[in-house]
Specification:
Length: about 270
């Protein structure tokens, strides 16, 4: 393996609690190098899952957090000026394709569509990446795979993937885990007891029922991990839940009251 990719290998097994048969399905998808799309709300375990799979398959993982200011050059690469003139520097996508990493494009809908299309020739049977400015065509390494994450909740006409992009991927649905499983995850990640973790999950479930009724997005597993970590550090549960669960997701005073009331029901 190329030295530059060694830093992207995940050395220690990430904690990932399987929810269904996603590990086996992903392994099968990787074995035929099918590009994968992980769909689901923010903070429900998509990134942790890719990290786990990269570790399990012993492949380097290059992650790119997508945003609307990102250009195709940010993914593909650019010429840089240095003391000896100009030097080409591969972007994360080119590096992954050239040396054989899994390239994870997180929240790909955030990127502009003209940026997203650079993955097209890599995600069909050509498996190539043209570096137009450099005049090079990279033939993807056999180990290379593209994985994107996508939150269908944010979908709008302006922000959606083109059909021509979507149809290049296999997709796995992610969601918040079932109550007992999510409690187990929160307890494991934070050190709080299963009983406290279960109460946190109950608060989140109340909030998730309000999605679409005044809340854009429910309380995620990630937020529960924050709240649990604060409680484990000795912060009073009410204060921890207000700071980590309620205040971040809404500015609306009535909604805050409703969520605060849910917290006091359980703590
Ligand atoms: P996203 O879906 O936004 O990529 P993450 O993968 O970052 O979310 O998940 C947020 C946090 O939730 C993780 O850091 C981890 O603590 C926890 N988590 C969620 N699902 C799982 C799971 N199935 N196994 C282990 N941890 C999980």
């Amino acid at each position: 393996m190329q030295d530059e990719l060694r830093d992207y290998l995940i050395k220690d097994e990430p904690y990932y609690r399987p929810v269904a048969d996603e590990i086996e399905l992903y392994e099968a998808a990787y074995s035929v190098r099918m590009p994968m799309m992980l769909k689901g709300p923010t903070g429900c375990g998509k990134t942790r899952f890719v990290e786990y799979m990269a570790w399990k398959l012993n492949k380097p993982l290059i992650t790119v957090a997508c945003n609307e200011d990102m250009t195709a050059s940010d993914l593909v690469g650019r010429f840089l000026l240095d003391a000896n003139g100009t030097r080409w520097q591969d972007g994360p996508l080119a590096m992954a394709a050239r040396h054989g990493a899994i390239c994870y494009l997180d929240e790909v809908v955030e990127a502009r569509q003209d940026t997203t299309v650079v993955i097209h020739p890599l995600t069909d049977n050509r498996r190539v990446l043209p570096l137009e400015r450099k005049g090079e065509l990279i033939q993807a390494h056999p180990d290379f795979q593209v994985v994107i994450s996508y939150n269908p909740g944010y979908q709008s006409l302006m922000k959606d993937l083109k059909q021509s992009t979507k149809q290049r991927f296999g997709a796995l649905d992610f969601n918040y885990p079932a109550h007992d499983l999510e409690s187990e995850i929160v307890a494991h990640e934070t050190g709080v007891s299963l009983d406290v973790a279960s109460k946190l999950v109950s608060v989140a479930e109340r909030a998730r029922n309000l999605k679409g009724h005044g809340l854009d997005e429910g309380i995620s597993t990630r937020m529960l991990v924050y709240a649990g970590s604060l409680i484990h550090k000795g912060v009073a549960p009410l204060a921890a839940c207000r700071m980590a669960l309620v205040r971040p997701i809404t500015d609306d005073p009535d909604m805050r009251d409703a969520l605060d009331a849910a917290v006091t029901t359980f703590f």
